[in-house]
């Protein structure tokens, strides 16, 4: 781990009773970078996001944030630490308090963390609003008076209110129309450049992830099957699932896309060996018997697949 | 420049081949009656679909694509005032009384909705829903309807069809539910299938499977398909022709591949530039400034003009849908090919 690493997750697992929602997930994020978690429903990407913020407790594994083990924090310490980690949700309708004016919404997190004097907090609220390109007049209005895109801007401003080091964004543009989505994505990139905020970006949309992220981890049934720098994932995906995901999302009708057969298995009954083998076009005997280890493929790329066995590190 | 107004006789309004027309929509307008009078929702929509052809009705939320579909289906809200002509298999259906319209549903038109859980009945078995439809529309006996239902489920790729018939919708995955809805939609041999965002709620890999299935069904049964979507990438992949809507208006109409590759209307261009693409190396996306005007607050003249970088003096007058290079465009300053 270099000094540059702000978040480092290793061996992270979460069971909900018999369901193993997240299994042995490891990754780290460098300061100022955007790390994407991509996967379909049931892949564990949102659970991983909540674990990272310790909104839910992990079953096992370690989360180091700013050089300290999050599991060791007392409840009071954790509350204080939250100042440095904020979240943006998919649904700004549900995540903003409908009774609070925008002014109150932007002041509240500062108040909770004892940041600034009352006058400074108001000043910060005004600055934040300008940063997300909303007029000053918005301060006295309530969430229902805004469109979906504007509400997501307010949610972003709120997340920035404590000047956090890490923002976890869970499907932040999935509910927005294309033209508005582009505005919000541009805004997030601009703000990140300006503040050097680190971002954990969760999405099911491969096009959005490619635009936003420096590094990407692809999850399937609670596990990371492949991870690496963006261009390695998009241009030389090694795992059959990543390849299929890309083909499904970008394929054209002519030339017949590579199709995955069957459905995502239930998290109650994860297949033995490689979890992906039931849908994998290349599965062979060993895949059912033995779980593939995650292999280093060089250039920061890693994947867990028996097909890659013996492949030299480039 | 003389502007030639696009009518139903222009090449892009009609399918290229001489195949039989299944659906013709002419000057369809829908308004909703409320306390303040009539609120226009959709204005002057015209397009047609031939057998075996897929036509996209594309646009963002609030553009009027879904209400257009419900007007065609005959399920528009009670306070809707509808004008224009809808012709199904050569017969005008727009003037028919409600009861007659209902008979066409299921028998001649099949529907696939985004959310199968809301469209399928939660407390009736899958089999009951399918056999009811088959018996009602085709007059089949219970046994014959059950056999046919099992065949249909099998055909849409549902394993253990007989077992599934006895089960309920909530026991199925999202992809399987959508397959059931497809089976139901094609069960009575319709000539037209209307699919409203049929894969939007599905995971990427399942979405691809369902699109393949729809494509297969279309070819096998020569179905005319109206495909309602917000996703222009799907339009290019899946449809022969496209109708792009904005604020209740058709803004561009033509071959899907042409529109996706080289749109002539600035809004269509804007939508494409706003989407992140595979292989995108752009540092910034190009958003369309502002937001879609809500119904009741449409600007005078061209409804896109306030958000349009090409807007000029003429745009205070609503442009006609006019023949441009390859498509029909409602714009005074359309883009050239490749611009």
Low-pLDDT segments of chain B: none
- DSSP strand content of chain A: 15-25%
**Number of H- or I-type helical stretches of chain A:** 11
Strand content of chain B: 15-25%
Q: The CATH topology of chain A is what?
A: Rossmann fold
| CATH superfamily annotation of the domain at 11-108 and 190-275 and 285-329 in chain B | P-loop containing nucleotide triphosphate hydrolases
Domain count of chain A: 1
SSE map:
The complex is a heterodimer of chains A (314) and B (339).
Chain A: E1 5-16, E2 19-30, E3 34-38, H1 45-52, E4 60-65, E5 68-69, H2 75-81, E6 85-88, H3 92-95, H4 102-112, H5 118-131, H6 148-160, E7 166-170, H7 178-195, E8 198-203, H8 206-212, E9 215-220, E10 223-229, H9 230-235, H10 240-250, H11 285-289, E11 294-298, E12 301-304
Parallel strand pairs in A: 3-8, 3-9, 6-7, 7-8
Antiparallel strand pairs in A: 1-2, 1-4, 4-5, 9-10, 10-12, 11-12
Helix pairs in contact in A: 4-5, 4-6, 5-6, 6-7
Chain B: E1 21-34, E2 37-50, E3 54-58, H1 65-73, E4 80-88, E5 91-92, H2 98-107, E6 109-112, H3 116-119, H4 126-138, H5 142-155, H6 161-166, H7 174-186, E7 192-196, H8 204-221, E8 224-229, H9 232-238, E9 241-246, E10 249-255, H10 256-261, H11 266-274, E11 322-323, E12 328-329
Parallel strand pairs in B: 3-8, 3-9, 6-7, 7-8
Antiparallel strand pairs in B: 1-2, 1-4, 4-5, 9-10, 10-12, 11-12
Helix pairs in contact in B: 4-5, 5-7, 7-8
């Amino acid at each position: 781990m270099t000094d540059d690493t702000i978040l480092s997750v290793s061996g992270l697992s979460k069971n909900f009773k018999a369901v193993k929602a997240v299994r042995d997930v490891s990754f780290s994020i460098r300061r100022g970078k955007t790390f994407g978690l991509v996967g379909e429903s049931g892949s564990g990407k949102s659970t991983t996001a909540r674990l990272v913020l310790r909104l839910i407790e992990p079953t096992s594994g370690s989360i180091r944030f700013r050089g300290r083990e999050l599991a060791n924090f007392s409840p009071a310490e954790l509350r204080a630490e939250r100042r440095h980690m904020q979240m943006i949700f998919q649904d700004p309708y549900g995540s903003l308090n409908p009774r609070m004016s925008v002014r109150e919404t932007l002041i509240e997190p500062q108040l909770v963390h004892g940041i600034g004097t009352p006058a400074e907090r108001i000043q910060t609220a005004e600055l934040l609003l300008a940063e997300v390109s909303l007029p000053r007049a918005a301060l006295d209005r309530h969430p229902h008076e805004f469109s979906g895109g504007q509400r997501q801007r307010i949610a972003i401003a709120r997340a920035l209110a404590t000047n956090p080091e890490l923002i976890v964004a869970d499907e932040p543009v999935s509910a927005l129309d294309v033209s508005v989505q582009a505005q919000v994505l541009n805004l997030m990139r601009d703000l990140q450049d300006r503040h050097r905020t680190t971002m954990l970006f969760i999405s099911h949309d491969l096009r959005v992830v490619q635009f936003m992220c420096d590094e990407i981890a692809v999850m399937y049934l609670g596990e990371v099957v492949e991870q690496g720098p963006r261009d390695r994932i998009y241009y030389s995906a090694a795992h059959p699932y990543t390849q299929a995901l890309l083909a499904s999302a970008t394929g054209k009708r002519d030339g017949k896309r590579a199709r995955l057969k069957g459905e995502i298995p239930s998290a109650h009954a994860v297949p033995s060996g490689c979890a992906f083998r039931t849908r994998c076009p290349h599965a062979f005997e060993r895949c059912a018997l033995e779980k593939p280890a995650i292999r280093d493929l060089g250039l920061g790329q890693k994947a867990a697949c028996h097909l890659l066995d013996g492949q030299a590190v480039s | 420049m003389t502007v030639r107004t696009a009518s139903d006789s222009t090449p892009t309004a009609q399918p290229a081949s001489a195949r039989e027309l299944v659906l013709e929509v002419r000057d369809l307008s829908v308004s909703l009656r409320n306390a303040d009078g009539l609120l226009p929702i959709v204005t002057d929509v015209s397009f047609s679909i031939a057998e075996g052809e897929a036509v996209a009705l594309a646009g963002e939320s609030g553009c009027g694509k879904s209400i257009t579909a419900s007007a065609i289906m005959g399920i528009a809200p009670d306070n809707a005032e509808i004008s224009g002509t809808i012709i199904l298999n050569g017969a005008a259906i727009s003037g028919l009384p409600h009861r007659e319209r209902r008979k066409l549903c299921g028998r001649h038109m099949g529907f696939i909705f985004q959310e199968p859980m809301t469209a399928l009945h939660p407390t009736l078995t899958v089999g009951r829903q399918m056999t009811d439809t088959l018996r009602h529309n085709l007059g089949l006996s219970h046994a014959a309807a059950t056999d046919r239902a099992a065949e249909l489920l099998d055909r849409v790729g549902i394993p253990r069809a007989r077992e599934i018939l006895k089960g309920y919708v909530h026991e199925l995955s999202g992809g399987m539910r959508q397959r059931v809805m497809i089976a139901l939609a094609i069960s009575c041999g319709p000539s037209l299938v209307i699919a409203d965002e049929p894969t939007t709620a599905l995971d990427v890999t399942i979405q691809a499977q369902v699109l393949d299935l729809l494509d297969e069904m279309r070819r096998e049964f020569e179905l005319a398909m109206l495909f309602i979507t917000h996703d222009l990438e799907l339009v290019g992949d899946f449809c022969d022709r496209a109708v792009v809507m904005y604020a209740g208006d058709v803004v561009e109409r033509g071959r899907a591949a042409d529109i996706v590759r080289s749109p002539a209307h600035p809004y269509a261009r804007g939508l494409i530039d706003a989407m992140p693409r595979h292989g995108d190396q752009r540092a910034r996306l190009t958003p369309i400034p502002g937001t879609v005007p809500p119904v009741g607050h449409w600007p005078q003249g061209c409804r896109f003009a306030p958000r349009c970088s090409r807007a000029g003096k003429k745009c205070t007058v609503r442009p006609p849908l006019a023949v441009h290079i390859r498509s029909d465009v409602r714009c005074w300053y359309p883009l050239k090919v490749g611009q």
